[in-house]
Amino acid sequence: MSTRRIQNVDDESACGDTDIISINYEPTDTSANKKSSKENRPQQGVTTKQSAYQLETDHGGLLTISLRHALGQEPFLDRGRITIQSINSQSVALQQSALSNADRDKLKALSEEDGLYRLEAVVRTHDSKETLFLTFIKACALVESLMSDVVTLSLSQDNNIIAVSLSTQPISGCGSLVDQHQLKTFNTTVVFRHMETGPVPDTATYVQKLEREREARERGDTKDNRSFLAKYWMYIVPVLIFVLLSGAANPEGAAGGGAR
Amino acid sequence: MTFQGFSRPPECRYHCGTLYRFYWNESLWHIRKRSYIGKLKFSNFDAAPNGKRVFLATEENVVAALNLKSGDILWRHVLEKGSEGVIRFLSVDTDVVTVSGNKDTLLVRGWDPSGGILQWEWPLPKTDHRVEDTHWYMSGSKLYQVTPVALSHVEVTAYNVGTGGKISAHSVPAKWIADTSKCILTTSYLACVSTTLDGKTLFGVLDVMDSEEEAQFWSKPLSEFIGKTPLGPTVSVEPVPGPVPAVIMREAAGNNARYLVYLSPKGPQLFLKVLSDYTSVVTVVLEGQHVLLQASHSADVVEITAHVLETGETISELVGSTHAFPLGPSSLTAAVCKLVWVREEALSSIVAVEMLELPVSDTDAAIEQEFDHKETGILGMFIHRISSQIIQLRSSLMTLLGDRMSEGQSSGLVRDEFGLHKIIVAATASGKLFGIDNLSGEILWQRRLEDAAPFLDQTTDRKHMVLYIQRTTRHFPHPAQCLLLFQDKNTGKGSLFVFNPFTGQPTNEGLVKLGFRIKQSSLLHQPNKEFLRGVLLLDDSNNIHVFPESTREEAHNIAASTFLFTGENNGTLTGYALMLSPSEHLLVTEVWKLHIDQPTIEVVGKNPMERVHSQGRVLGDRSVLYKYVNPNLVAVVTQAPDPLHKYLLSIFLVDVVSGAVVFSVVHKRAKGPVHLVHSENWLVYSLFNDKFRRTEVVALELYEGKTQSNTTAFSSVLSPIQPIVDRQAFILPATVEAMKETITEKGITSKHILVALSTGGVVELPWVFLDPRRPFTLTPEMREEGVIPYMPELPIPSESIINYNQTLMRIQGIHTSPSGLESTSLVLVYGLDIFYTRVAPSKTFDVLKEDFDYFLITVVLTALLLASYVTKKLSSKKALKQAWK
């Protein structure tokens, strides 16, 4: 049994065999923003960040998620518990029991016959409202990733949990040999996924853009500062080709005439 | 020298520049429109003595006039949608008068009978009484509004129909009318059946045209004139159509005893004890006598009998009059002796539609068959070859001799070169199935399914059936096969109907009544040895069924990779995995469950026929942005009230295999109706922004990133990836009724989005306009990528309206289907009207232009060939001459 305190680590790659369990607190669009900023779209990054901030503000209270797992068609057994002090402060405590030897063998067998590892999560809010969620992964994916799984908590607009889904770090395939001893303790990462605010037609920026263009036109600022060649190459090139062609054709014609 | 060539007449400057007018010519033969009016509610003949029209009001809120001879629509008006436009009364005098609306607004409208022009319109004053209880009657220029008020009185108000002025109002005391009593109006008589507290059933009649002084309710216990009353408290009363006051009383539950009561001037009298097994009754006035006509419909014969109401005697001869009878729920016939016309009004309520390729011709089939037999030896192959060639020879001889082909081809249902000719299979809400030729619009076959009812979505009130293509026409000699899933009207349990889509004939299984309610169904992706794809059915106690039995083996084979999901209206989604128990029995296990806790209004997946041709998008810097193409992605739309923002509209993208919420987005102060198109790696939806009071279209585009996670196959379970989501919103200056993307065979052609507008147009919107990557300032890189700069408002150019001037009303949906040509997509728009056309989103790049000059090309080619031959000769001659020099 191990209780671990969670630190907030931004980088996804930090979750390995270290004692720290990372929380990817990303409002998921930050990754999109990283990409999109390269693609010259600064206006979107601003709006989504604001909205993510807005979402965080209205929630407090303790959440406990009790986890029970089932190996194949077996009944659900207790696996552990996730305690979330508050979604705002992102402090998460994990309490998970290690896999017994019998269960480990079962998991191994299940992995070989391509069975499913199912997880039942009962979320209890501070006002003791209980909701049952169910999720699964392929048993072989759990074995292959050496028991490092990711529990994703999808949150609704008012920060209620709407989905608990289990996944593992991406693996290439199943069937490689895994040492039995590595299948003992769960190395779990908890990820929160917030809801994003939908886009609205950006009329203000567009009007500003039109305004700017109009002003520029009024100031006569549309001076073309490209070089002479860059501006008129489309006229120069045909003339050049024509000159070259007639130059090349002439001696030939003269030669032909001479031969006759 | 003068330029004589510029001799354009000066007036052309004005004439040539006038409005471009669209001419409906033969070159648009591939566009078809059929108009319908919907399920009949009221009908009335023309009041003019030699009028050849019938006026109708339907449940689709339509007022229309039909030509009695041909059944064609003379004019049609579609009133307001929903309860605001429900037609409650129709009467024909000098004007066609309708009363329509709900309890907030009731409008009286007068229409010109010949042209259908709205002559006048006025609102009825608002009352507190239920609008369903109110009755209307028109006599001359007076419109009577009759409202029975329970336990108190009956209010009778007369209005001047043309101006809306109140003429008179009085109330007749009638304390015996209870809340549960049934009242109807037959001509000017109000007839009520009411059960009093002591169990007695009273029958009362009031003439609403009586003045205040003489108005009096005539009421009597029902048993007094029906005899030993077998009618209990559930008796219902309905009017008999026609100019004579008469009602039919029947027991709502139990025995089907019907009683016709004639309300003669002397007082109500029972006319017939038990009416024969009739379909319709109508009253007429013949030579001053009140006559009852009964039409009983059995097989193909309509038998009509007539009785004089006053005396009860039978009339043996009926001369010189035509009367309309509504027959069945979906067709309207006007005939005494022979069927004159039929209108298939069921087609105004299509709930499931598919387009199927036609089978190949017999000769082509023979050729295909030849290559099917691989196991036969050389001799067998030789015999096949010879026999097929004999068939070809015979058929070519027959065409030479001008003989018709065999009956299979006589209908012309043979696949054409470009696969543009298809059959439309449509299932309708009334349980009638149709096979329609897409080119001519002709109904090839129809079949009525007994007790069939569509599934009803409780939150959106949308009706649907499920139509699966189990086998296409590609597997000769097996015929194509379709399966329709629906529910039984009486029990609510599932039923299915298996049929040949080209004839409508049931196959061996035919109509199967399943003994359970269907929760979810899915078509197996693996066909059996006969190329038949089975259907998985999940019942409400989570048992899985395979249909037909012959595909069970395939279902067992793919059980491990098959997942199902169900969604409930409260936002609970559940995923199931299919498993094979040790006893070789299929069962499902719940594998994921999520609670969105908001009412779901829409669940949209991708078209399973869709192919994504390009896996990525090439950017301006020559790098590739890979698309996130997840075939298991489903968009779930929920709508919830919110104390702060009034309405919240949320979209959840759920991977229905793993149960993960891939992406979710919320729109504040936004509400439905939401129309959603989900295709490839993008999502486009329209919503109503309550804050700005406008329709907005939002586009989401999902990308994996600059590297592709798995190049061979996508897996939801093994390597889930988090997509990058690009998003953008646009303003659409119109109201959306339906949306659909175009689909082509290989997915090479760019996609357009067809948007049906409430104005009756269908706009073809190119995807580039909805691209979320449209930037504000266009960089050269972006320009190279082919992205256009962002503009908040989407244009609706009139030239991109694909139905031109053919306005389509009450569009329910759009169905798109690929054709044999990669460039072309076939489009069927259905609703009150049915409209068929085809679109080519990237222009017809694989077809020669219509004005392609074959003659010129041939001439040029032959001339070139000749010239080259001649010059070759000449040059060899010249070379010879030079050699001699």
Please state the CA-atom Rg of chain B, rounded to the nearest Å.
34 Å
Proportion of beta-strand residues of chain B: 35-45%
Order of helices and strands of chain A: EEEHHEEEHEEHEEEEHH
What integer is the average pLDDT of chain B? 82
N-to-C terminal Cα separation of chain A, in Å?
106 Å
Order of strands in the sheet with the most strands of chain A?
A: 1-6-5-4-7-8
**Main beta sheet strand tally, sense and closure of chain B:** 6 strands, antiparallel
Number of helices of chain A: 6
How do you describe this structure in short?
The complex is a heterodimer of chains A (260) and B (885). Chain A has 260 residues and is α/β, with parallel strands linked by helices.
Give the key terms.
heterodimer, A: 260 residues, alpha/beta, 2 domains, 6-stranded antiparallel sheet, 12 strands, 35% helix, elongated, disordered N terminus, B: 885 residues, mainly beta, 9 helices, 11% helix, globular, transmembrane (chain A), transmembrane helix (chain A)
What topology emerges from the helices and strands here?
The complex is a heterodimer of chains A (260) and B (885).
Chain A: E1 2-5, E2 7-8, E3 22-25, H1 29-38, H2 42-56, E4 63-71, E5 77-86, E6 91-96, H3 101-112, E7 116-124, E8 130-138, H4 139-144, E9 148-155, E10 161-168, E11 187-193, E12 196-197, H5 203-218, H6 228-259
Parallel strand pairs in A: 2-3, 3-11, 9-11
Antiparallel strand pairs in A: 1-6, 4-5, 4-7, 5-6, 7-8, 9-10
Helix pairs in contact in A: 1-2
Chain B: H1 12-15, E1 32-35, E2 40-45, E3 53-58, E4 62-67, E5 73-78, E6 87-92, E7 96-101, E8 106-111, E9 118-124, E10 135-139, E11 142-149, E12 152-160, E13 166-174, E14 182-186, E15 189-195, E16 201-207, E17 218-221, H2 222-226, E18 235-239, E19 246-251, E20 258-264, E21 267-272, E22 280-286, E23 289-298, E24 301-308, E25 314-315, E26 324-327, E27 331-334, E28 342-344, E29 350-357, H3 362-372, H4 378-400, H5 407-410, E30 422-428, E31 432-437, E32 443-448, E33 452-453, E34 455-456, E35 463-464, E36 466-471, E37 481-488, E38 494-499, E39 506-513, E40 518-527, E41 533-539, E42 544-547, H6 552-557, E43 563-567, E44 572-580, E45 586-595, E46 600-604, E47 616-618, E48 624-627, E49 633-642, E50 646-655, E51 660-668, E52 670-679, E53 682-689, E54 694-705, E55 724-732, E56 736-741, E57 752-757, E58 762-766, H7 767-770, H8 780-785, E59 811-818, E60 825-831, E61 833-839, H9 854-884
Antiparallel strand pairs in B: 1-61, 2-3, 3-4, 4-5, 6-7, 7-8, 8-9, 10-11, 11-12, 12-13, 14-15, 15-16, 16-17, 18-19, 19-20, 20-21, 22-23, 23-24, 24-25, 26-27, 27-28, 29-30, 30-31, 31-32, 33-37, 34-35, 36-37, 37-38, 38-39, 40-41, 41-42, 43-44, 44-45, 46-49, 47-48, 48-54, 49-50, 50-51, 52-53, 53-54, ...
Main location (chain B): endoplasmic reticulum
Transmembrane segments (chain B): 854-871
Pfam families (chain B): Beta-prop_EMC1_N (PF25293), EMC1_C (PF07774)
